[in-house]
Structure formats: C-alpha cells, structure tokens
C-alpha cells in the first residue's frame, strides 16, 4: 500500500510539473521579447530588417534565448517520458499480486550514483525495473575446501534457501573432503528445486599453483579466476560467492542485476570498503594496483559467455605474470588479480551498490552502506576474526548469522509451487515406500521411521588418519545424543585409536557441540575422531541408523562396536590389534567379544588390570553388565569361565545375546526397523550368527558401563503398552525376514525365541 501511495504522489507531482513548466517558460519568453515596451522578433533576420538598433550584443542575447527554448523543450520531453513510466509502475503495483514475475531493486553502475544511493537510503532509481521469471533457475558458484569451509557453506546455503523463490543450481568447486561431506549432505537434505554439481578442485590446482599467495585461503582462494574454464560452456552467467557470506534477501534480486549490464560490462562487483588498495594502512604498504579503492570479490556477477569471448583466461594470466614480477605474491588471493585486470580495463565492471556486499572486517566503511537494517542485502564476514569483528552493529549481524547457523534445515524442504522439478529417483522411491504403509496401522510411526531420510553432515570437525602399516587398525564405533556429550573426553582418554561417532542433534545442538568441542583441550588434541551429525527428525531415536552411519565412515579394516556409555579398559586399543593378528580376523569370520561390566557409582577408581577388576567384582563395586535386569543379554559370555581364562574361547549364540564385538568392516549393517529402545543390538548379533560368525571371548579385555539417567526411549518402553506391542511385532517380522534370507538355518531363532 505504501508503494502505491508513493507512486501516486510521484504521478501527481510529475503531472503538475508538466503543466506548469510550459506556461512559465512561455511567459518568460513573451516578457523577454519586449524591449522598451515594444515587441521584439525572435528571429535575427526579422530584427535586422525592422530594427535599426540591431547590434552584435542583442544578437548574442537572442541566440542565448533560443538555446534556452530548446533546453526547456528537451526538459518537457524528459518529463513526459518520466510521467509515462510512472503510470506504468502505478498499474504494475495494482496488479502486482497477479503477476508471474517480480521486480527487483535498481542498482547503480558508477561510484557517484552509488554514493547518492547510500545517502538516500538505497532507494530505487526511476526507470524500468528488471525482472526474474518465476521458475528461472539461478546459478551459484562456490569454491569450498576442507572441513571448516564445508560448515560455512551450509550456513550460506541456509540463508539463500530461506529467502529464495526460484529454483537453484549450485556449482561447487570442492576438494575431495568437501565433496564427500557436501554430496552426502545435499543427498540426504532432499530440498526440492535444488540441483548440485561438483567440480574437482584438486584437478584445478595446476591452473593456479604457479601464483604465490599469502592469503589464508591458500591455493583454493585463486580458483575463482578459472571459472570460465571450469563451469560448463553452456552456462552463460553465474553468481560467485565466498563461503563466509550471509544473505538477508532473495538471491533473485541479485540475479536480476545482470539485466543492467551494458556494453562490455562482464563483472558485477562491490567497491572494497577498506583502505587496503589505497596503500596507506602502514609505512611501506604496497598493495596490488586497483581502480580507486578497488573491488571486493566476495560477491561476483560473472557473464561467462562474454568473458570467454574476451579471452578472459589469457587476460588475467598476462596481468598476473606482469604484476608478479614486481609484487612477488598476492596478498588477497584472486581479488588482487581481478583488481589488476580492472585497473587496465575499467570498462569490464558494473559497480554494484555496496549493500550487496557489506564487508565486516575491521576498519571498513561498511556502515556507510546502509541507513537502516532493512537496507541490508548481503553480509560478508571477510575478516579472519569472523564474528569477533569490530562494528557498531555487530550484535545485529551476529544474531542474523546465528539465526541461520542454528535454523532447522528440515524446514527448508519446501516445494516451489508452480515450478516443475527435475525427477529425483531417491525422492520418488521414498514416496513409493511411504505410500505402501498403512496409516491406520497402530505401529505406523515405527514403520515410517525405517524410511525417514535424516539430513547428515559427515566429519563435522577436522579429521586426520594415518593408516597403520601392519593393517591391523581398529576404530571404536558409537552413537550419542546431546545428553551423553560428557562421555567424549573420558573415552578419548581411554582409547587412543581412531573413533567414529554419530551424533543425533538438532541444528542448534550441533552448534552447542561445536563450541563444547572447540573449548576442550582433550577433544581438540585428537584429530583421529570422526564426528558425523545426523540431524533430528521424527519422534524416535534412530539408534541403528546412527550406528550404520558411524560404521560406514571408518578408515580402518576393523571396528569395535561399542556404546557411548562404556569406557574401554586402558590399553584395549593395542590389545585388540594384537588379537586381530592372533585370531586371524583378516581371513576368518570371527566376532571378538569384549566382556562388559557396570558400576552404579558415578565416581569410580577405574581398574587398571583384570586382577583389579576381579577384586572390585568380589567387593560389589562392579557387576557383570545388566545382571540384575537383563541377564540373558550377556550370560552366554560365560563370566565364570572368563575369570580364570588366559586364552580366547568360543561361545555359542543364545536368544537375546547382545555382546559388544570387534569385527571386520564388511560385517552386515544394523536393521533400521528397530528404533529407540529394544532389540537393536540383539537383531544384529543374530544376523552375524546367521552368517556363520564365530563368537570368541577375549580373556584380558573388558569395558565398564558408567551410570546415567534413563533415556527417554527406555522410559517410553516401560510406560507405553503400545510401544511394547509394536516392538514385539517388529521382532516377529524380523525373524520372518531372517527365515526368508537364510532358509532352514534360521529356524533355530524362532525356536529359541519360543523357548525363552
């Protein structure tokens, strides 16, 4: 409504101006055509013929008057054009709710207009507004490498998805680490009308490795220079973004700016808001050449087709080679080379208004880019300090960033109505599987959980692993939620080998975990722990999905399938590696059992040997695991024999057996139908037995369960009769599936269940 009123006021003002100026003009001309009370002809020829007082001076005055007449007529024509455009906009506002396209804010193409726009509060210019079609695909390119950058990309993508109304195509130039992380993330995110393509950044290193670069982004900070070669030849235009960008508006508004490019303009950039390129930051500061303040390359609009025709590749290479002879290296990576090219070829640039890249590094002019927070479009955290940067509005910017950082990404899985989506095989299969379920089934929610696709972010923190030369390495595998976070430091102290953990967290909890981990000296000193975030969705704890995620992403030939509440004995890692060789796990189907014990005390002097543990058993400080509530779970381990055993011994499978085992990485996965509490490990051990694994108890190994409050799922199991009924139903269905898969050999599981 406000926009309509403003349009009407502009229309009225223009109308009055159009009516008044001609009248005033002709009154002025009429009055000026009298001299000494007598009319004077406007024609010099007429004056010469009829006036004896004609002089050179009066001729100049009349010529000046004729010029003024032509100027007034030109102003009239300009006002008519403006009035016509104002009428068009007024009609556009009235039918705006029915339009299939939407208009974008007008940008500026030169620094004078840019400064005027800042003073005026970034108001739009008069003129035809560019448009983006409703279902037009917007292409975005991002260079991403490593674990930390992968996290940053997720926050950037969230901010773009939150505001977007168009299909998106992300072009990610990524190293092998970022590709693995982000490919899994987008595959499990399943956002409609979003396509993601990856380009191998490692293959591009040779294109830019000859350029010395002092910037913290390293070699990957130069790869935006080769996008014309890297991206598909059919792609004509693309928005290029740094990973430390946050959008505060629909990215389609920025895409629309491409329509304003004229002539040979092929780069859309915002002026650099620091004094870096002015060369006055410190004594002997010598930056790369730039036009004025230079341009920041955190946000770039690239007209790829025109750049290719201009031979951009040759242009930037020649410039870089020439400047490097004197500069020796770049300080700001690709930005230095872009600016050097622009210095020589200023016609290449369309200057974007600075609210398209508000640069929050120290000592910038970013505060001049907006008069109100509603003016903001794109925030760029381009300081190494990131959220700790100095700015009088930094709290607002930080809160905006944290909003997207902790925003539930599942809420962004929304359809773009009216826009056809590309066929997604995974999505179609999921819908088919869900449609086959009976929603009236009392166990529908249990069955549905089996098919739920949980968004997954692998390697949330930096991970390094050096394979063991003897090929005997073992990874501890476990899963946890936020309420078990305090166990991580203790496990890391007890187990020095690699660890693979699946954490079931919300987006906000993932950030709490990140802060917890970064504040822990113990966790930060360990780089061989893989943290894989599985984001919360649904009402059940997907325990077996979490185990499968952790199992799938180990780097060792063997794995110790544990739970987060257990502390392994000191030295267990090395003991298991020796046992792998002793029992020839590489060539046999064996599951090595680590006997499980428990304490009811929150403070425990952890036993340093088997003898000390046996003493604590005798004193009642320790117990065999769950002996008082679920004896069958670990009874086949035969603890009486273990007390005196000095060599490994074999035990037979029994109903409800659920020991903690060490197996090869190619063992079967856990069955996803079991969620929450009950039968999740039992079913897996049954599957191992069906595949003819031998169960071998290790005589000098042990683990101890630490006390904790009951989980939400075990509380539901104990209090909800329908929960127990559904679990029994799922058990029966699993046993039937076992019979179908393993035939006659699986009959013993039905018999054992009936006898138990």
TrEMBL record:
The keyword Ribonucleoprotein does not apply. It is found in: Golgi apparatus membrane. GO terms for biological process: acetylcholine receptor signaling pathway; astrocyte differentiation; basement membrane organization; behavioral fear response; blood vessel development; bone development; cardiac muscle cell development; connective tissue development. GO terms for cellular component: Golgi membrane; neuromuscular junction; plasma membrane; protein-containing complex. Residues 44-58 have a biased composition (Polar residues). The chain crosses the membrane at residues 12-31. Gene3D superfamilies: Spore Coat Polysaccharide Biosynthesis Protein SpsA, Chain A. Keywords: Glycoprotein, Glycosyltransferase, Golgi apparatus, Membrane, Multifunctional enzyme, Signal-anchor, Transferase, Transmembrane, Transmembrane helix. GO terms for molecular function: glucuronosyltransferase activity; manganese ion binding; xylosyltransferase activity. It catalyses: 3-O-[beta-D-GlcA-(1->3)-beta-D-Xyl-(1->4)-Rib-ol-P-Rib-ol-P-3-beta-D-GalNAc-(1->3)-beta-D-GlcNAc-(1->4)-(O-6-P-alpha-D-Man)]-Thr-[protein] + UDP-alpha-D-xylose = 3-O-[alpha-D-Xyl-(1->3)-beta-D-GlcA-(1->4)-beta-D-Xyl-(1->4)-Rib-ol-P-Rib-ol-P-3-beta-D-GalNAc-(1->3)-beta-D-GlcNAc-(1->4)-(O-6-P-alpha-D-Man)]-Thr-[protein] + UDP + H(+); 3-O-{(1->[3)-alpha-D-Xyl-(1->3)-beta-D-GlcA-(1->](n)-4)-beta-D-Xyl-(1->4)-Rib-ol-P-Rib-ol-P-3-beta-D-GalNAc-(1->3)-beta-D-GlcNAc-(1->4)-O-6-P-alpha-D-Man}-L-Thr-[protein] + UDP-alpha-D-glucuronate = 3-O-{beta-D-GlcA-(1->[3)-alpha-D-Xyl-(1->3)-beta-D-GlcA-(1->](n)-4)-beta-D-Xyl-(1->4)-Rib-ol-P-Rib-ol-P-3-beta-D-GalNAc-(1->3)-beta-D-GlcNAc-(1->4)-O-6-P-alpha-D-Man}-L-Thr-[protein] + UDP + H(+); 3-O-{beta-D-GlcA-(1->[3)-alpha-D-Xyl-(1->3)-beta-D-GlcA-(1->](n)-4)-beta-D-Xyl-(1->4)-Rib-ol-P-Rib-ol-P-3-beta-D-GalNAc-(1->3)-beta-D-GlcNAc-(1->4)-O-6-P-alpha-D-Man}-L-Thr-[protein] + UDP-alpha-D-xylose = 3-O-{(1->[3)-alpha-D-Xyl-(1->3)-beta-D-GlcA-(1->](n+1)-4)-beta-D-Xyl-(1->4)-Rib-ol-P-Rib-ol-P-3-beta-D-GalNAc-(1->3)-beta-D-GlcNAc-(1->4)-O-6-P-alpha-D-Man}-L-Thr-[protein] + UDP + H(+). Pathway: Protein modification; protein glycosylation. InterPro entries: Glyco_trans_8 (IPR002495), Nucleotide-diphossugar_trans (IPR029044), Xyl/GlcA_transferase (IPR051292). In the C-terminal section; belongs to the glycosyltransferase 49 family. This is Glycosyltransferase-like protein LARGE1. The lineage of its organism: Eukaryota, Metazoa, Chordata, Craniata, Vertebrata.
């Amino acid at each position: 409504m406000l926009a309509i009123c403003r349009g009407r006021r502009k229309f009225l003002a223009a109308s009055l101006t159009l009516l008044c100026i001609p009248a005033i003009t002709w009154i002025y001309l009429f009055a000026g055509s009298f001299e000494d009370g007598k009319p004077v002809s406007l024609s010099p020829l007429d004056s010469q013929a009829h006036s004896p007082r004609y002089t050179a001076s009066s001729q100049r005055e009349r010529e000046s008057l004729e010029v003024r007449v032509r100027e007034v007529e030109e102003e009239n024509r300009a006002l008519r054009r403006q009035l016509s455009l104002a009428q068009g906009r007024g009609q556009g506002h009235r039918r705006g709710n029915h339009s299939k396209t939407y208009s974008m804010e007008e940008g500026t193409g030169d620094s004078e207009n840019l400064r005027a726009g800042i003073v005026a509060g970034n108001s739009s210019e008069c003129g035809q507004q560019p448009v983006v079609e409703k279902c037009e695909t917007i292409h975005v390119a991002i260079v991403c490498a490593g674990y930390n950058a992968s996290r940053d990309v997720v926050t950037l993508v969230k901010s773009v998805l939150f505001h977007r109304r168009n299909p998106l195509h992300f072009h990610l130039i990524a190293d092998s680490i970022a590709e693995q992380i982000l490919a899994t993330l987008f595959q499990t995110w399943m956002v409609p009308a979003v396509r993601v393509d990856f380009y191998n950044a490692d293959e591009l290193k040779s294109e830019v490795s000859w350029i010395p670069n002092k910037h913290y982004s390293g070699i990957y900070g130069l790869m935006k220079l080769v996008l014309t070669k890297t991206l598909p030849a059919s792609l004509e235009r693309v928005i290029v973004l740094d990973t430390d960008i946050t959008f505060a508006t629909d990215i389609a508004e920025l895409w629309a700016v491409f329509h304003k490019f004229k002539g040979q303009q092929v780069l859309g950039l915002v002026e650099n808001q620091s004094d870096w390129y002015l060369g006055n930051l410190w004594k002997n500061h010598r930056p790369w050449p730039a036009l004025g303040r230079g341009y920041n390359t955190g946000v770039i609009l690239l007209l790829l087709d025109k750049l290719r025709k201009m031979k951009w590749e040759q242009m930037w290479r020649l410039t870089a080679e020439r400047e490097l002879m004197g500069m020796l290296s770049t300080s700001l990576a690709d930005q230095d080379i872009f600016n050097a090219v622009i210095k020589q070829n200023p016609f290449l640039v369309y200057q974007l208004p600075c609210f398209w890249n508000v640069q929050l590094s120290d000592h910038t002019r970013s505060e001049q880019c907006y008069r109100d927070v509603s003016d903001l479009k794109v925030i760029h955290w381009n300081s190494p300090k990131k959220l700790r940067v100095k700015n009088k509005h930094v709290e607002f910017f930080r809160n905006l960033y944290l909003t997207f950082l902790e925003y539930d990404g599942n809420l962004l899985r929304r359809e773009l109505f009216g826009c056809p989506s590309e066929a997604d095989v995974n999505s179609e299969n999921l819908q088919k599987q869900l449609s086959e379920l009976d929603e009236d089934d009392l166990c529908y929610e249990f069955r549905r959980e089996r098919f739920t696709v949980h968004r997954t972010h692998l390697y949330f923190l930096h991970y390094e692993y050096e394979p063991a030369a003897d090929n005997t390495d073992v990874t501890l595998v476990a899963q946890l939620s936020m309420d078990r976070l305090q166990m991580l430091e203790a496990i890391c102290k007890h187990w020095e080998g690699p660890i693979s953990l699946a954490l079931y967290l919300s987006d906000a909890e993932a950030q709490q975990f990140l802060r917890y981990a970064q504040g822990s000296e113990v966790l930060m000193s360990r780089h061989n722990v893989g943290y894989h975030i599985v984001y919360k969705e649904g009402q059940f704890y997907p325990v077996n999905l979490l185990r499968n995620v952790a199992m799938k992403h180990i780097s060792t030939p063997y794995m110790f399938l544990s739970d987060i509440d257990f502390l392994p004995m000191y030295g267990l890692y090395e003991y298991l590696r020796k046992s792998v060789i002793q029992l020839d796990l590489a060539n046999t189907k064996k599951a090595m059992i680590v006997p499980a014990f428990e304490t009811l005390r929150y403070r425990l002097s952890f036993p340093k040997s088997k003898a000390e543990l046996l003493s604590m058993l005798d004193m009642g400080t320790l117990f065999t695991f769950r002996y008082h509530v679920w004896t069958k779970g670990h009874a086949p381990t035969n603890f009486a024999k273990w007390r005196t055993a000095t060599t490994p011994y074999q035990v037979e499978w029994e109903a409800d057996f659920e020991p903690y085992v060490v197996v090869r990485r190619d063992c079967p996965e856990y069955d996803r139908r079991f969620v929450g509490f009950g039968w999740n490990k039992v079913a897996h051990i049954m599957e191992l037995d069906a595949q003819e694994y031998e169960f071998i108890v290790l005589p000098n190994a042990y683990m101890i369960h630490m006390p904790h409050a009951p989980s939400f799922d075990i509380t539901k199991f104990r209090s909800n009769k329908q929960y127990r009924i559904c679990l029994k139903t799922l058990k029966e269905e699993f046993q039937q599936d076992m019979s179908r898969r393993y035939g006659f050999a699986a009959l013993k599981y039905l018999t054992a269940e009936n006898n138990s």
